[in-house]
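Structure tokens please, single chain.
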Amino acid sequence: MDDLLDLETYPLDRPGSPGWTALVAECRARLASDGMFDLPGFMRPDALARAVAAIGPAMAAHGFRHARSHNIYFRDTVEGLAPDHPALARVETVNHTLCADQLAGNPVIALYDWQPFTDFLAATMGKPALYRMEDPLARVNVQASRDGEALNWHFDRSEFTTTILLQAPAEGGELEYRKDLRSPADPNHDGVAAVLRGEDPLVRRVALRPGALNVFRGVDTLHRVVPVRGPVERLVAIFAFFDRPGVVMTAREQIGFYGRSTHPA
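Here you go.
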């Protein structure tokens, strides 16, 4: 794994060591204060180049174009909300996706399947354990955003969102987010509406560099990617982890996100 990751700066291969313990503590503190942490240069440049070189032709030939008008919940109705509530305002998303079964041999799959990566993430999130997703499509995705495209405002399915930016566009592509916008006890629909109207001063924008690992609490953090500008597409690897084993998408979810399903007909 040393050829893929900067394990001198980020000693994920030495759990319990002073360097590993200090890194986990720093990441947990940043999650608490900022709602996210990022580790610049986490993936080595050569590994990053190999990943991008393999993704380019695969994305051009097999990437699924996902274009939809949706609200931030990806549901037509939400309990307790009138259909015209501003939290249900429609937004537009366009991106292109490669699924895990289309990434065989790519460095991002090797990283995802490396147990010390899972264990490190669990420690940063204060979890006794994390489990890799068993869905053959959704466990790892690479998403591309091209000129004028973006992943619009939404909450995530998994509690924490884990990504590595593989390629940055010439302009745009920054991550905008509002940490801790809701909780299990308070869906904060009015707060959601304020973000969608551009009226929340606590919305933050970060520009990540290729190779950076980024983790944030996606289930309660409303977030989006700023539209990309220019001929260079934004490429990001998205890793799915859960606090329980055996998580898979339904056939309907797979078809909605990827245009196909691995479930029996």
